[in-house]
Amino acid sequence: MPRLTPSLIWKAHSISPLAAALLPVCRDIPSALTELRWIREHVQSMSKASPMPADVMIRRLCRERGKGVPLQYVLRTQPFGNLEIKCRPGVLIPRSEPEAYTTHLSNLLKSGHFITANQPLRVIDFCTGTGCIALLLYSNLTPSVPQLSITGVDISPLAISLSHTNLAHNVSLNLVPPPTQSHTITFQQSDIFSPHWSSPSLVGKYDIIISNPPYISPRGFARECSRSVRNYEPKLAQVPLPRPAEVGLVFVAQEDVFYARLLDIGAVVRPKVMLFEVGGMGQALRVVGMVGKKLGVDEWAVEVLRDWPDGRRGEEEGGEVAVDGVGQVPVRGSGHGRSVLVYRR
Fold first, then answer.
1. Do residues 217 and 182 make contact, with C-beta atoms less than 8 angstroms apart?
2. pLDDT tens digits, 61-120
3. Domain boundary among 50, 68, 86
4. Which helix (DSSP H) or strand (DSSP E) does residue 80 occupy?
C-alpha cells in the first residue's frame, strides 16, 4: 500500500483535522469526508444517551477509526438487506456477499423452488454470528410462508447475545415482525461438532441448512486478510480450529472441516436445501467434491453461486465447471465463487 503524501495530509488537515485523522484507513479525502459525516451523524443520533460531549465523542471515534478499527464497530451498526444489524467487537461483521446469497435463496423459496405452497418451512443457520442471515430470511419469508421456524446456532455466547439484541432491535424499528406462534425465530448456543447434531432424532427436523462457517486457512489469515480483519475481528469466526482425528476429519484440510461436518449433519437431517458460504472458487469446488463423496449425486444436485448470484455473468466467467465424481456443475452469477447450493433433485 503506498504511503500517504505530505501534501495529501496537509490538504485534508486544511479541510478538517478530523478528516486527516481518517486518512490512514480511507486513503483519499472524499472517502475520509464521507466517513466523517457518518461518524457525526452517528454521534448526533446518540447524543441524548451519552454523557460525553458530542465533539469529544467525534474526535475519539475518528481516532479509533484512523487506527484501523472497522467502521462497523465504530458506528455500531451495518445495513443488511432491509435490516439494521448491530455490530460489536468479538462478533464477525456482516458482509454484502452473505446478503446477496441470502436474498437469492429467499427469492427462490418465494417463487416456489424447493418447497410447495402453504408448506411449513424450518430453517437452521449454523455459525449465525450477529444473526444477520437468520433475520434476513425471517424478514423476507414471513409474508409469504404461512408457518416459518428459524433457528440460529453459534458456539460464541457473545454472538448469541448479540443475535438476540438484533432481533429485538429490528422488531423495535418495525423492520421485522415480532415472532408469533406461526412465525418463530430463536437463537441458541451450541457447538456444531457436538454429537447432538448427528443424532438420529434430527432426521427430517429441518428443511434448510444454511451456514457462513469459518473457512480461512491459518496461512490465508496471516497473508491474505487485511490488517483490520486480523487485528479486530474474531479469528474464531474465520479460521477453523484444528480437529482431532476422532471426529473423522483427519483427511480434510483445516479450512474445510466445517463443510465436512455440515454435510455429515445434512446426511442425517436430510433437508431439502443446503447453502454454505465459501472463500473462493477453489474451495467451492472442493466442497462440491465432498457433496459427491458424502451424499452422492443421484439424489442431490449442486450449484456454485458467485458473489452476486443474480448478476449477469461476464464473458470471461464460465457457466459451468467439471468436478470429478460429480460431473458438470452450474456456476451462476458474477464475481468470485462465494457459496455452494445443494438441493434434492
1. no
2. 999 999 999 999 999 999 999 999 999 999 999 999 999 999 999 999 999 999 887 889
3. 68
4. strand 77-80
Answering whether pTM is above 0.90, one says: yes
Q: From CA 109, how far away is CA 121, in angstroms rounded?
A: 10
**Residue type at 341?**
L
Q: Tell me, what's the pLDDT at 249? A: 52
Q: Rounded to an integer, what distance in angstroms lies between the CA atom of residue 226 and that of residue 21?
A: 20
Q: Give how far Cα 6 sits from Cα of 13, 14, 67, 264, Å.
A: 10, 12, 18, 56
Q: Which of 236, 190, 246, 191 is nearest to 216 (CA)?
A: 236
Query: For residue 232, which amino acid is it?
Result: Y
> 264 and 224 in one domain?
yes
Burial of 322 (0-12, 13-18, 19+ CB in 10 A): exposed
Question: What integer pLDDT is reported at residue 245 of this predicted model?
Answer: 54
C-beta of residue 307 within 8 angstroms of C-beta of residue 290: no
The DSSP bridge pattern shows strands 121-126 and 148-154 to be parallel
CA distance 156 to 191: 9
123: closest CA among 83, 166, 102, 152? Answer: 152
SS3 159: helix
Instruction: Mark whether 62 and 128 lie in a shared domain.
Output: no
Instruction: Answer whether 312's CB lies under 8 Å from 343's CB.
Output: no
Q: Which amino acid is at 340?
A: V
Task: Report which of 301, 269, 305, 270 is spatially closest to residue 284, judged by C-alpha positions.
Answer: 305
Domain containing 116 equals 96-277
Give residue-wise pLDDT tens across range 258-301: 999 999 999 999 999 999 999 999 999 999 999 999 999 899 99
